[in-house]
Design a protein that fits this description.
It is a single chain. The protein is an alpha/beta fold. It contains 16 helices and 22 strands. Strands 14-15-16-13-12-18-19 form a 7-stranded mixed β-sheet, with helices on both faces. It has a 6-stranded mixed β-sheet with strand order 9-8-7-10-11-21, with helices on both faces. A 3-stranded antiparallel β-sheet has the order 5-6-22.
Length: about 500
Amino acid sequence: MKEQYNAIIRQYWDDVKTVKNFVGGEFVSGKGSKVVIHSAHDESELLSYPDADASIIDMADKAAQLARKAWWGLTAQARGQVMFRIGAKLRDNLEDLAIVEAYSSNKPIRDANVEVAKVAEMFEYYAGWTDKLHGDVIPVPTSHLNYVTYQPLGTVLQITPWNAPIFTCGWQLAPAIAAGNAVILKPSELTPVSSILVAALAEQAGLPKGLINVIAGYGHTAGQAAIQNADIRKVVFVGSPATGKKIAMTSAERGIPCVLELGGKSANIVFEDADLDLAVRGAQAAIFAGAGQSCVSGSRLLVQESIYNEFCTAVAQAAKHFIIGDPLSVETQVGPINNAKQYAHVTKMLDVAKAEGAKVVDNGLPSVPEGTGFYVNPTLLKGRNSMACAQEEIFGPVVVAIPFKDEDDAIAIANDSRFGLAGAVWTKDVGRAHRIADQVKAGTFWINSYKTINVASPFGGFGDSGYGRSSGIDALREYSEVKSVWVETARTPAMNFGYGANLG
């Protein structure tokens, strides 16, 4: 797959061992300190490149300002047609993009294929919205015609994470440009390549040059420089709560609003009357898919006391059949932790959990590859909700199983968290299912399923999981300014120089 990756990259720039920024339709190199990307499978060096410097940010800022005027100058229908062509272009290049994503982002190739298809779907979905983002006429109690329009913000800065780079790239880009904005996208310094290719392919499909600019570099350098110096009208960040708070504070100094999609510690609740075979499969998918590196992972497994031991054993036994290994292998189901820093965090949290008294349910866990690599076995812990492993995000294939007595107890435990991103309940009692869904504090909630999301449905969190919504029609509202226009229709209008209704 390495040779396939090299052949794909040579279509864009010559040196396959480096990464270029994509600014104003051109591939350009930064001049900052060296960024090195390693393979999570064998720790070898994959890529290295110079961090984006201030000149790159300035170029992106100017390119975006020009492009957004050209883009908004098109009819809404024309913008939609371009976006639909982008979706088709991505589908035409699905295999190449999946290879790039798997190789450069340490993601199982089977997952990468699915995620690229989802990105194409995102552009196609929002292509249909470009001519439907219309306003309203308000029946005001005066002689005025009052109407409301939605206009683009201008240039938006989007900062995306390393765990799902191409997916979050499309998830953020599509609604932003559908609403008429230009974008400066700053993916994680560890996973920039697939996002750069998405932007390049979008331009090949007819997007104005400079409407999407992708910056390869660190958040504390390139990201901060963009917030502080570029003509940014909104910042969208997906990542850790600690970094999100820093970004919000920096943005607030310039009066720039944010959308923050942060961490989660989602409660996956299983009642004794559930379809237990289905719930076991759901519990595994909720936490072990993607090696647990998902913000919506069901990392707290709440199980009713009467079935607690039985259910924990079943989940652990089923997990031993996973194929863990090289993300470039088509057989791999669970890949490595993306990077050394995150691997150290996961292993430390496991040590802390054991020191606090959490018990590993060991029923013949699968063996991770020997030697190098950032691999962690899928792990089920028996513990309590007060433990660090139940309160802090691990972001790895580790779930803590917590017993509960009844419905009220399950809700209390689920809500005993500073996070509120997602959750689920497994039960055959329809009334109970809806009561739980209503009372658990989470932005997304599933009943008898887990982890299904779609670009058409709003996504975001409560509490320390962030604020704002990043999909569905709600995202278009996030990326728009609302304007109220008043047109006097009376022949001899009465002038009102104060606030309040003009009833003359």
